[in-house]
Design brief:
The complex is a heterodimer.
Chain A lengths: L9 E10 L2 E11 L5 E4 L6 H9 L6 E6 L7 E4 L10 H6 L1 H4 L4 H15 L14 H14 L4 E5 L7 H16 L3 E6 L2 H7 L2 E6 L2 E7 H6 L4 H7 L6
Helix pairs in contact in A: 4-5, 5-6
Chain B lengths: L1 H13 L9 H13 L3 H34 L5 H12 L3 H12 L14 H37 L4 H11 L1 H17 L2 H7 L9 H11 L2 H33 L1
Classes of the chains: A alpha/beta, B mainly alpha.
The structure holds adenosine-5'-diphosphate and magnesium ion.
The site of adenosine-5'-diphosphate has 10 residues of chain A, from helix 1.
Chain lengths: 237, 254
Amino acid sequence: MRMPETALPLVARGLGFSAGGTALLREIDLVLEAGPPTLIIGPNGAGKSLLLRLLHGLLQPGAGWVRWQGRAAPRAAMVFQRPVLLRRSVRANAAFPLPLAGIPAADRGLRVAEALALVGLTDLADRPARRLSGGEQQRLALARAAALRPEVLFLDEPCASLDPAATAAAEYIIQTISRQGCKIIMSTHDLGQARRLAGEVIFLHQGRVCEHAAAPQFFQAPSTPQAAAFLNGELLW
Amino acid sequence: MRQQAGRRLDRGRRAGHPATVPDIATALAAAFGLITEGDRAVLSIVTLSLQVSFLAVALAALVGLPLGAFLAVARFPGRRPLIIAGNALMGLPPVVVGLLVYLLLSRSGPLGGWGLLFSPGAMVVAQVVLITPILATLSREVLEGLWEEYGEQLRSFGATPRLAVPTLLWDGRFSLLTVLLAGFGRASAEVGAVMIVGGNIEGHTRVMTTAIALETSKGDLPLALALGMVLMTIVLAVNAAAQLLRDLAQRRQG
Ligand SMILES: Nc1ncnc2c1ncn2[C@@H]1O[C@H](COP(=O)(O)OP(=O)(O)O)[C@@H](O)[C@H]1O
Ligand SMILES: [Mg+2]
């Protein structure tokens, strides 16, 4: 059997980013392979959002590089902490990025329908997107990303402003997308969420990768005192 | 029509208003008369004014709005100077614009071949020059806020600045209505430029503002007042309609 063409692994070497003379991310070396979700965890201000933006190419690194080392062209999407919805209908939002991604017009309708069904927004397809509740808005942002059928989906604390029920719904959607073969790379400061979703964990502390390990290993036997303290719920700054 | 207004004033004087310069009440009454009767001259002046200003806004929008949107999203050397130039051009005195357009369109000027001078077309050109910088600058300001919100997500979708322009224009459509309104207000209220390039020719290039200026200086206050009232009503009505539309859309889109 022939392996499908892939853009992974996503590799970062000596990655650094600074602003105003302050180093915010330092000497980050990562190899991200296809497989179960990678969760980037760490306290507020650790640099999780910056790292995701660098990996996705939204920011230019100050040092080092990020590269897709597979043979295929990368297909990546990103969902932000606060969903960015256009002033259009739910359906139009889900369809918006498809032409930019070169999806033929004939395929777009089906993709949108499937994505809206995945997140349970089929019945609200004609509503103005920005009139949805917070949870529905984030589900729409997930649907819009899913419609692209990306190989990698970056998620920056997608549940940070959601209530427990909406969080559960979003996690279920993320797991479904992951099972369909999409590589999830997601940040969170919620340890419980990391335990529920992670295949592997990147623990970020003060702009450095403190640990990068398989989830069971990280949660049972963290190898650094900083990670142990974070797991114990001690605040880290 | 001048005679008509004159007759009305005579009637006013006979009714016991002693004045070579008629008093305001009489002039107002006569002005209302001109409007309610649908005086042909008034009607043609109003129609021409609206045609010129609407056309000028439409043409200026075709250039100004995409330019403003592009300046809101693109970062390139020369962007700052362009923005500063736009701001400066916003304050151009209309008479200076009139003079420049006059020179361009005059028989010996570079665009003399168009044969537009002293025609409604020349007035459209002058108003377009006058309001394009306004539309570009105001739309840039409005859309910069929208880009701040949309920018990262659109870049994540792979949208280049050029591809982002239509998205910003569509999603900012209700705020841009206010921008168009500012352009329309400026175009329809302006006297100097259209006076110079149009020539204020009766029945040909006479618009509300130039007619008001002329009739006032000649002492035909009823006609001036009638046109003034129509001008004010139009500007207020257009503003109110746009505001209403905006509120309605805001409530719908959230
Ligand atoms: N564009 C920027 N300029 C300057 N400082 C920034 C910028 N973006 C983020 N930071 C700072 O970098 C640090 C890491 O930010 P962030 O990646 O958002 O952290 P996290 O997502 O882990 O909470 C924070 O101290 C933040 O204030
Ligand atoms: Mg963050």
